[in-house]
Each structure stands twice: as structure tokens, then as C-alpha cells.
């Protein structure tokens, strides 16, 4: 049993917040590419059908149903002189870069061979991503116990993440042309190599500039099944798991369908990069505003308000004519701004639920707790991609051709009404989250009291659900 303590009054230095934040910039060199471009890469460049691509992206997430909690358990039980979570940023940076290049490569194979290649390489990419991203996410839960500092830290994370998204969405179409020199398949491959090297350097910087401070009341010697059982009984965690899945459906559906929207509905494909990158900028601005927002409103009502606004703004896009470019961009920026705070809010609440779990059970499974965020996000993204692929097939979408009126209407619905309704559902789900700031402060004070008396038996304290 450790005698180390974490002092809630300790505040993180700006350099450490920046160091942690740039790590998510590296992750978004992959995630933003997957969300915005992978589906259209598969349909318009790689050469498989929209339905097959969507189904593949969903089926591979079945693997993640096992690997995410498995990786959380492994990370929680990792013991090195460098910490539990930081070492993975060193060990897996280059393997992740290699998997990214393979996923965006187009081998000279038949339709069946290409589909097998897509399944294998995308699964490898997601497995490697999981193995490095879950420890990175859990790192924020052991850097500080101060609730406001956690919100600020995670805000820095998503500012970095959205900045990475801005770079990816703006630069990717241009890099594909520049590096490919007329060969689009080579352009995609080299573009992912550039992003992979850049991400590896950012992961190294995060490793060097961060520190793990919070130690559990006792070492985690419980079985993995016990960790999963603890999470199943952790109601705030269950709400966040559902919330992250629902919100990611909204975000991915808007990002993925946005490329089709501008190419086939607005008929201005040259504006795709600006449309998506300006949206990412608005997301980053919203994320940066989160600490200010939480000073005036608790996390739960703030999340409900923001998701309601995101839903209404998204639905309003349905009524905007295709030639009203300025208004389309304005609504898109508004959606990005109100969606931006959802990520720092949700991830700071994941750290809060790790405290809650330790208080209830005497066991702290930080990485297992954060694995829910990664898994639910990936599952939500996969569901959105699959739905888009299936709907494109249903409405008669034909790659690189003029679309029918029905196909155009389907694309419009996928970028406006459908994700808008999903966002409103997220606002409703948030009603069931009960862990407020007052209760959290009491929990953290009791945890610190237990750590201050390490030789006194720690008995888990139940709470009213």
C-alpha cells in the first residue's frame, strides 16, 4: 500500500498542460482523417462500395469491444520507472505510423482482395491506436486531482486535438495532390507517412513534459472482471459511456457526410477543406472556452444546453439553399463552437468517475475507466460511418458521378437532420448523470483522508444512487 498522496491544491504548470495537449494533436492526425476522409477514400479512391466500406468499419469495432477494456486493464497493471501510462507514447508511436500508411495504401488487388486488405489494415490501425490512446487518455486522470485543473487540462488536450483536426482537414486534400503529383493513391500513402512522423514527434514531447502524480489508495490487484463489474455498477460512468457514443455519431456523421455534401450537393468540392477546417477551428474555440463556461455553470446543465443547441443548429442547415455558402459556413461554425466543449467536459467527468469508483469500492482502475471513452467514441464513429455507407447505397449513390435528386436529399439529411436529432438525444441522456461538483469535492476529501492514514484499513463508502 503506497504512502504517496496527491494534494488537490497543487496546480499544473502551463508547460505541462501544453505538453499534454499536443499529444491529442498527434492522435487527430489519424482520428480526424478517419472521420472526414476514410470513407470517401474507400469509395472514390480505393474502389470498394459504400455499403461494403461502412459495414467493414462497423464490424472491426467488434474487435474493439474486447481490446479497449483489455488495454485498460493492461495499462492499469503496467509498472515501470517511467510510470503506468507514459511509456506507451514511446513504445507505439512508430507502429501506429506504419499502420496508418498501410490503411491508406491501395494495393493492386481484385475487389475481394481489396476488401480483405481494408479489413486487415483498418483493424491493425485501430488496435494500435487503442494501445497508445487509452494510456494517453488515462494520463490526465493521474496528473492532478483538482477538478477545475482537470477541466483546464482536458481543454488543452482538445484544443490540441482540434488544432490537429484543422491541419488535417485543410492540408490533406492539398497534400494528396502535391505529394501524389497526379497519382492519387500515392498521394494518400505519402500524406499519411507525413502525418505519422509528425504524430510520433508530438507523442515524444508529451512523454517528456508530463508527470504521473496520483497513486491509488492501494495497488490494483483485483481481477479484470472485477474492474468491469465495478464499471457496470458505476452509474455516472454508464451515462458518460452512452453520451460519448451518441455524440460521436453526431460528429462523425457531420464530418464524413460533409465531404459528400460539398462535392455532390453544394457542387463546390474545392471548398471541402475550408468547410471542415473552419469547423475544426470552431470546435477548438469552443474547447478553449470550456474552463470559462464551467465557472458559471456546472458540467451537467452545461452539457445539456450545448447539445440542445448543436441539435437545433444542425437541423436548421436542412433549410439553407445550396447556393448560400456564407450562411452554410456560419451555421457550421455555430455547431462547431457549441460542440467544442463536449470533449473536455466529458473527459474531465471520466476522471471524476474514476475518483467515484475508488471511493465506492476502494479500487481505482483509471485506464479501464478511460477505455470506455475510446471504445464508445470509436463505436459511435463506426456506427455513423456504417449508417452513411448503407444510406448512400440505399439512395443510389454512384461515386464520382452526378447524383440523382433522391441521392442529394439523402446526403443533405445526413449532414443536417439526422445528426441534429442524435444531438438532442444526447442532451436527454445527460439528465441521468448525478455526480455534481459538491459531491465530487466530498469524495476527493475522503480519498485524501484515506491516503493520509495509509495504515488504517480503507473501507469503501457507499453512496446514494
Automatic annotation (TrEMBL):
Coiled-coil annotated spans: none
GO cellular component assignments: plasma membrane
PANTHER family reported in the protein's UniProt record: MAJOR FACILITATOR SUPERFAMILY (MFS) PROFILE DOMAIN-CONTAINING PROTEIN, MAJOR FACILITATOR SUPERFAMILY DOMAIN-CONTAINING PROTEIN
A single MF term (Gene Ontology): symporter activity
Keywords (A to Z) from UniProt: Membrane, Transmembrane, Transmembrane helix
Keyword set includes Membrane: yes
Regions crossing the membrane: 21-42, 88-104, 116-139, 151-171, 186-208, 237-255, 275-294, 301-319, 325-341, 379-399, 411-433
NCBIfam families, per the entry: gph (TIGR00792)
Family: Belongs to the sodium:galactoside symporter (TC 2.A.2) family.
Swiss-Prot/TrEMBL GO biological process terms: carbohydrate transport; sodium ion transport
Entry protein name: MFS transporter
InterPro entries: MFS_2 (IPR039672), MFS_trans_sf (IPR036259), Na/Gal_symport (IPR001927)
Native source organism of the sequence: Rheinheimera tangshanensis
Pfam family, one: MFS_2
Amino acid at each position: 500500500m503506497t504512502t504517496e498522496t496527491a494534494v488537490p491544491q497543487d496546480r499544473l504548470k502551463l508547460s505541462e498542460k501544453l505538453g499534454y495537449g499536443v499529444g491529442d494533436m498527434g492522435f487527430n492526425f489519424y482520428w480526424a482523417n478517419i472521420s472526414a476522409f476514410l470513407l470517401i477514400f474507400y469509395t472514390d479512391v480505393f474502389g470498394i462500395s459504400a455499403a461494403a466500406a461502412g459495414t467493414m468499419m462497423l464490424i472491426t469495432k467488434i474487435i474493439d469491444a474486447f481490446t479497449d477494456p483489455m488495454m485498460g486493464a493492461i495499462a492499469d497493471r503496467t509498472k515501470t520507472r517511467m510510470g503506468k501510462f507514459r511509456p506507451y507514447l514511446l513504445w507505439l508511436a512508430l507502429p501506429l505510423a506504419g499502420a496508418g500508411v498501410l490503411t491508406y495504401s491501395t494495393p493492386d488487388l481484385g475487389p475481394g482482395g481489396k476488401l480483405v486488405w481494408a479489413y486487415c489494415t483498418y483493424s491493425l490501425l485501430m488496435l494500435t491506436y487503442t494501445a497508445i490512446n487509452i494510456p494517453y487518455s488515462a494520463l490526465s486522470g493521474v496528473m492532478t486531482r483538482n477538478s477545475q485543473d482537470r477541466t483546464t487540462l482536458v481543454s488543452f488536450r482538445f484544443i490540441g486535438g482540434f488544432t490537429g483536426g484543422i491541419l488535417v482537414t485543410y492540408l490533406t486534400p492539398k497534400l494528396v495532390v502535391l505529394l501524389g503529383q497526379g497519382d492519387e493513391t500515392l498521394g494518400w500513402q505519402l500524406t499519411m507517412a507525413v502525418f505519422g512522423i509528425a504524430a510520433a514527434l508530438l507523442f515524444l514531447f508529451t512523454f517528456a513534459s508530463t508527470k504521473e502524480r496520483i497513486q491509488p489508495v492501494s495497488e490494483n490487484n483485483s481481477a479484470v472482471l472485477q474492474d468491469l463489474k465495478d464499471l457496470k455498477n458505476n452509474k455516472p460512468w454508464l451515462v458518460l459511456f452512452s453520451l460519448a457514443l451518441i455524440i460521436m455519431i453526431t460528429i462523425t456523421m457531420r464530418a464524413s457526410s460533409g465531404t459528400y455534401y460539398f462535392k455532390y450537393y453544394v457542387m463546390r468540392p474545392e471548398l471541402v477543406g475550408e468547410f471542415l477546417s473552419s469547423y475544426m477551428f470552431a470546435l477548438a474555440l469552443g474547447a478553449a472556452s470550456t474552463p470559462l463556461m464551467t465557472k458559471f455553470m456546472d458540467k451537467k446543465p452545461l452539457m445539456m444546453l450545448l447539445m440542445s443547441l448543436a441539435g437545433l443548429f444542425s437541423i436548421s442547415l436542412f433549410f439553407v439553399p445550396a447556393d448560400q455558402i456564407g450562411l452554410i459556413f456560419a451555421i457550421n461554425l455555430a455547431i462547431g463552437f457549441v460542440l467544442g466543449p463536449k470533449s473536455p467536459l466529458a473527459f474531465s467527468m471520466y476522471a471524476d468517475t474514476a475518483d467515484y469508483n475508488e471511493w465506492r469500492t476502494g479500487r481505482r482502475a483509471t485506464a479501464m475507466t478511460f477505455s470506455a471513452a475510446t471504445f464508445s467514441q470509436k463505436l459511435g464513429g463506426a456506427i455513423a460511418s456504417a449508417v452513411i455507407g448503407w444510406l448512400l447505397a440505399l439512395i443510389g449513390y454512384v461515386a464520382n458521378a452526378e447524383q440523382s435528386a433522391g441521392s442529394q436529399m439523402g446526403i443533405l439529411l445526413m449532414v443536417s437532420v439526422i445528426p441534429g436529432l442524435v444531438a438532442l438525444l444526447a442532451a436527454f441522456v445527460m439528465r441521468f448523470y448525478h455526480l455534481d461538483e459538491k459531491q465530487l469535492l466530498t469524495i476527493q476529501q475522503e480519498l485524501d483522508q484515506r491516503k493520509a492514514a495509509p495504515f488504517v484499513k480503507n473501507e469503501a463508502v457507499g453512496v446514494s444512487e
